[in-house]
Amino acid sequence: MNLESIVKEFNELNNWEDKYNKIIDLGKKLPKLPEESKQDHLKVRGCQSTVWLKAEVSNDSLVCYTGESDSIIVQGLLALLIKVYSGKKPQEILDTNPSFLKELGLEKHLSPNRANGVYSILKQILLYAQAFKALKK
Fold it and tell me: Topology of domain 3-136, per CATH?
């Protein structure tokens, strides 16, 4: 599913309760991380909730993200970010403008702590992409 489809899907929802439910549903569908992946070095700093984010690069240079949170809303937000950024080459990830977060209205409807958490996750996603890009040189 591409970014435009995700934005369209969210914008078709009538109210914020429906959008929150959609976010929660995304989180429920996100596969759980194996316990051995819940290591301290995989924790995202800057999140009030505990969030683990793992990144791996495939043989065809696609970055795949997996993650988990102990908060149901943050789990959904993490799933949304993984949906947008996973399965792309590092440069594609770095070129994907995060303006979709504004388009979805997340900045207006999330608490400041949750919004900071989303941007902390996004920052970690971009750092992984930058690292994988540097390794390819």
Answer: Sufe protein. Chain: A (3.90.1010)
